[in-house]
Amino acid sequence: MSEPTDKTQDRAEKQRGRILDAAQQCFIEHGFHGASIANIAETAGMSAGLIYRYFENKSAIILAIVDRQLQLLREDIRLNRRVDLAGEMVQNYGRSCTADARGMNAALLLEISAEATRDPQVAAALDHYDATVRAALVDWLTRGTASGGHGLPAAVAPERALLLQCLFEGLKLRETREPQLDRQMLASALRYIVPLVIEP
Amino acid sequence: MSEPTDKTQDRAEKQRGRILDAAQQCFIEHGFHGASIANIAETAGMSAGLIYRYFENKSAIILAIVDRQLQLLREDIRLNRRVDLAGEMVQNYGRSCTADARGMNAALLLEISAEATRDPQVAAALDHYDATVRAALVDWLTRGTASGGHGLPAAVAPERALLLQCLFEGLKLRETREPQLDRQMLASALRYIVPLVIEP
Amino acid sequence: MSEPTDKTQDRAEKQRGRILDAAQQCFIEHGFHGASIANIAETAGMSAGLIYRYFENKSAIILAIVDRQLQLLREDIRLNRRVDLAGEMVQNYGRSCTADARGMNAALLLEISAEATRDPQVAAALDHYDATVRAALVDWLTRGTASGGHGLPAAVAPERALLLQCLFEGLKLRETREPQLDRQMLASALRYIVPLVIEP
Amino acid sequence: MSEPTDKTQDRAEKQRGRILDAAQQCFIEHGFHGASIANIAETAGMSAGLIYRYFENKSAIILAIVDRQLQLLREDIRLNRRVDLAGEMVQNYGRSCTADARGMNAALLLEISAEATRDPQVAAALDHYDATVRAALVDWLTRGTASGGHGLPAAVAPERALLLQCLFEGLKLRETREPQLDRQMLASALRYIVPLVIEP
DNA sequence: TATGAATGAGACTTCATTCAT
DNA sequence: CATGAATGAAGTCTCATTCAT
After folding, report:
1. N or C: which terminus of chain A carries fewer CB neighbours within 10 A?
2. D169 to chain A, closest Cα gap in Å
3. Residue A78 half-sphere exposure, CB side, CA atoms within 13 Å?
4. Straight-line distance from CA A38 to C1' F11, in Å?
């Protein structure tokens, strides 16, 4: 009957985090539908029933993961001016296959994209994610070079942003197929194409 | 009792085709795990049990679909010289969301890619598919302009092919998210970038 | 793909019957919520999954049972002129505790009545049942004595029917509590009161 | 460490009361199986765990509720001479659907009666309740008119009491189905039948 | 005394797969 | 060859009950 204290809220948030971490790992490993709640519970080191104290149902977990990725992305964009897009793409390539926080895990992106095809809520969340990335790219392309941008005219920036996004996501997809792709070649290819896209 | 005649083999092949068509449609609509055998059977206009006369199990159907896409692709490559890659990309954009045969359906590509992450057999089949596309692109880029190619030196062709493939697949992924994307902008963007990639 | 034949329909109907019989028994024994699908399946001698080929879910079974009772009642009313209501009440008393078809089982009536308090669909079906009984009673009370009725004026028949129905159901309820109630006393009591109710 | 003082006992009794009130409300609303401990706890404004300090388990709560109803009934009988049974029946009709204390709530009676069919302890408690009502009725019917009774001979009183009880409970059952029943008609019907039952 | 997080059993339900017909 | 009834395993979810705090 007492109001929830900060301490219990903290604990709850921590538990939610544990569950999401476990879920993300399981989803990457087995996919949204291949991963069972029992699976996630075991990975999180708790009983299956307990998960339902923190999430209404399985699809709420999926949504929470998409949302969390969106938060991470936003923070990433806020912190990061991305001066060297090509270099960063190469750097991150193959890294996301482990479940680290930097950039979205490639397999997870696939899973989410596939699910968005069917679940409108996931689609909406993904659209949101998408729009955020696009806006950041356009901003970066149009901003003046003085402030770290590339001074592209507003008329062409959207289409260049689209290209970059396709390239970026195509690369993510490729990560899942050729995680061992020769970095040298990748670097060379990107260093060739990215400047062509972002220079006026 | 009788040896399998050509006629019965034909019939068998036709049945397999019916099943694969139905399965493909169901997989696109509900995903590999969301589509049930009962679903597929109903779509194919046959009983669930009959499917097991033609396929060992559900994942055999998935494999067969990847294989069939590979066949279709090969035939496509054999017939098609692809003189205008950018134009074709725009033309096909958004089309694959309906279950036509030209190019792989975007949602299906997602589904298969995600599944390849877990099932090594699917991964192998997809690698095969992948390599085929890559080889065709490299061939097309290196072949002389006289025979419809672009005469790129062998040293840079692979990396350009990689770029094209990423772009192409990134575009496929985008199809699932923005099927209504402005064709004008897309055409403009591709007409700008593709020549830069394929011209020496 | 062939149309369902009479034979398969027959079988289906027989299976539905088996399931309903088993369900009725289980519901009487453990209540709607105490009886599990596994319970019913075991009683019916089949697997739990099979039940879902014949009924969409558990509450569909409940509804089907209410409906079936209604059918039985209708048939009973059609066949039966009920000349000796009091006698029949005594005769049936205590019989319904076994799951026979004659009159509704007392425990089942309780269960259904309780469920109707919460589930509007059950309530609707029960209302239907209720109205059928009431109409039959009114008809019987108003019909001329020549045709087996009691020639009550239409003005008082409804309230007498209400009394009879209350008495009848109160007696059902009592059956569950005192199945061994002295029949002599019961007969004596009913023979005293019922004529007072139905005679003008 | 300290012996239970009167004060702590009082508090305990008050807590039990709170729990029973909440439980009764929940049971009426959702049934014994549909009402969860969490439900009851929330309604009672306490934690789920605390309930187990006052009741061994859920069915102990059910038993306690039946017992409490019995207490209330006893008190009611002691205070109340019930001069006008029919009038009171009409008065109370439909009232019990709200969770007041006067007479047993109709839905609760159903729930308890149904449960008594399965749980022998509930059956025993209900029998006790039943016998108390019956005895009071018999007493009232046999007592001289001078002391508010009806002076029925002891030979017929039990069967008349039985009739009254059936009528009374049948009416309760009806309350759950037709809470809006026309009071005029009900009054008219009862005024007709009740005197016939209780007059010699 | 009181909380509410945690568990474990068990409920309903779905579905790939088999097999008698 | 073809059907679809049947099974059994597995999945999602709920809830009575316990227990550390």
Report:
1. N
2. 39
3. 6
4. 9
